Amino acid sequence: MDLILWRHAEALEMREVEDDLDRALTPKGERQAQRMATWLNRQLPSSTRVLASPARRCQQTAAALERKPKTVPALAPDGTVEGLLHAVRWPDAREPVLVIGHQPILGLAAAYLLAGQPQPWAVRKGALWWLRAREREGVLQVVLHAVVSPELV
Fold this sequence. Notes:
By secondary structure, this protein is an alpha/beta fold.
């Protein structure tokens, strides 16, 4: 199973809006989202499921992909690693899954899957971590396939 954890692109600061879920992308964030979406559209199979937080900034980041995301409340800013893994059907999903979400949940999930315990790993705004689960000799292994930031694509 491939699991791609994509942090939303740069958004307005909380002091600029009343509700965190209403924070929109900045012009820089819109450019970041478009660059990453262009790269992802060249890499991702058409069968990839796209799951996004209900937050406006995640919905806008997802819109750059031009694929219809499924909005998943468990991916909201107050989500948990367990909720994320349940939503993506880890590690049993047959198709790749792209999650568009938030810190710290994305970093915690990456740490949990790669190191066995949630740790506060940083995922930069607009960047993604591509993880791959595979079974070798009856043991589930998680491999870091790629870490990509918008500045590198």
